[in-house]
Amino acid sequence: MLACLHKEQGRVVPYERLRAILGLKSSERKQTHLLQQYMLWIRKTLAAHEASCMLGVVQSVGYVCANMAKETDASAPRASNPSP
């Protein structure tokens, strides 16, 4: 699932496709819950490893893997330089 989400980074991957990857045949409540549990595990794993991407959910559609913006020197506050 993570490979699929990473490959489709920035695009929503529908629940149906993710369920198929897991071998789940239907969208029954029990199977949807199982998908949610896998996604929770992936989220926690990404956070624990300080990954540069995160998972988001588009309610009733699917999940998306997206890059997180990193703070750069340009976005950090700058100290003013005193005049000579």
Could you characterize the architecture of this molecule?
The chain is built from three helices and three strands. It is of the alpha+beta class and 84 residues long. The protein has a domain at 2-59. Strand 2 (53-58) and strand 3 (62-67) form a beta hairpin. It is globular.
Q: What's the average pLDDT? A: 84
SS summary, helix count? 3
Percent helix: 40-55%
**If strands are numbered along the chain, what order do they take across the biggest sheet?**
1-3-2
| Percent in strands | 15-25%
Report the end-to-end length measured between terminal Cα atoms: 59 Å
Biggest sheet descriptor: 3 strands, antiparallel
Low-confidence stretches: none
Structural class category: alpha+beta
Characteristics:
84 residues, alpha+beta, three-stranded antiparallel β-sheet, 40% helix, globular
Brief summary:
With 84 residues, this protein is α+β, with helices and mostly antiparallel strands. It contains three helices and three strands; from the N terminus they run αβααββ.
